[in-house]
Amino acid sequence: MSRIANRSIYTGSNGAFEMDHFWTPWRYTYITTAETAVRPGVPAALAAWEGDLGCVFCNLMASIDNAIATGMNAEKAEAAGGLVLRAKHCFICLNAFPYTSGHVMAMPYAHLDRLAALPEETAHELMDLAQLTERALERIYTPHGFNFGMNVGQAAGAGVAGHVHLHAMPRWVGDTSFMTTVAETRVLPENLETTWKRMREVFAELIIS
Ligand SMILES: [Zn+2]
Known about the structure:
Elements: E1 3-5, H1 15-23, H2 56-69, H3 74-81, E2 83-86, E3 90-94, E4 104-108, H4 120-141, E5 145-149, E6 166-171, H5 175-182, E7 186-188, H6 192-208
Antiparallel strand pairs: 1-7, 2-3, 3-4, 4-6, 5-6
This protein binds zinc ion.
């Protein structure tokens, strides 16, 4: 079943903006769980962690790890945080306000604000995860194409400028014309829980195979 998502990712709706959005959709996506988060990046289900590292991504990981360390089932904690995959230096999580179903982000655990600041192994692993993500999205959504995008620095449109992250999403021919038609309403074919389950399964299959 489709569901209508009214959480707007727009800051405007004139034609020029739509066209800009068409080319660089990741620039206009919110990354925080602003509506339900108890602190930036901390999902309500993981609120037992009382810290605040001043970064949505660092807070997200800390709240998940704290939940697991204090006895919550790891699958449950990672599902609550939308954490799809832990690699050695980087991880993949869902975007809580997806532009399309399957919109994920890959990033280092380290709180670094420049791509060039990433240690070599971390930077290489980030690209490995981008390739893995492309394969996963292909398998799950059979899209016509993909967007991979990274904004480095606030001036470049980064929602979380202190912690570099790579957006990835599947795209279909015609999805943008639909976006233009319906303006600030998006139709998402699946909810985040479903996306998480599908991603989790497929990433696990890809890593094993
Ligand atoms: Zn951070």
